[in-house]
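Protocol step 6 of 9: fold each sequence in the batch and record its structure tokens directly after the sequence line. For illustration, a two-sequence batch is reproduced in full.

Sequence one:
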Amino acid sequence: MSKKTGGIDSSFGDFLKDEGIYEETTATAIKRVLAWQLQEAMATRQMGKNQMAKEMQTSRSQLDRILDPDNDRIQLDTVIKAARVLGREVRIELV
């Protein structure tokens, strides 16, 4: 949502870009939402971390990194694997 202020178009996104932190902030927000969605899907399926890691064929520590909302350094194939185990899909689009 943008608003006009003194003839200048401004938005929160523009502010983040001006501060040079737009990409970092966006990546962090996406990862936090993704971690939350995975945890919610695990809870819905009543699946614990040990079972999830086993079904993903990965370690519990790797799963903890995936579920860590502050870790934005995970690979796309890992996210897809986690989603598949939970009966979900990953959708990415450019807008």
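Sequence two, same batch, same settings:
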Amino acid sequence: MGFLEILSDVLSIITISLCLILKIPQIINLVKVKSAVGINLYALLLELTSYTIMTCYNYCNNYALLSYMEYPIILVQEIILISLVLKYMGLLGNISFALFGVYLGITGAFMSTLLPKWILSLLAPCCTPVSASSKVVQLLEILRTKNAESISILTWFLSAFTNLTRVFTIYMDSADVTLLVNFSVSVLLSTSIMLSAMYYKHPKKV
């Protein structure tokens, strides 16, 4: 095994380790302020869709677990985050639980190949615009409200960093163009959200 392969594995382990806590600062911050102002629910749902598709896509293509293990880890945190946002928006109820059940059913159908893999091959390229849209929507929400009090800067820093490491590790593992483009765009947008959150972290009192 050459140096680049070892470096790729080390970066993968670092990425996965950081993703264990990726959304935790955001979750803690949300519980602390008890407000979802500045957080866009649709952006979170788009993120959830993108992470789910990419998890299923990598799993069904038998890619190395180290190259995508962060996805299922982030998914759990994302679901907790969405639940909290729904709670603070007063939207957590029977309908949201029913929709979550539908989500679990569809995800299970993909991963057990009850639904054909070619559907994932069609959906995977869509994850770049979906993921980008989720971040653009969140960025616009911060700029619109000029309030990033509920936003965790650390979460978006970790997002930008882990996406950057994934550009290298994916290139070394499979050089999958779909995945490379997806992570490259995510680096740019996560960095933009982080910088915007830093600027609007303490909104001016009117």
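Proceed to step 7 once all outputs are recorded. Observation for sequence two: The chain has a mean pLDDT of 89.
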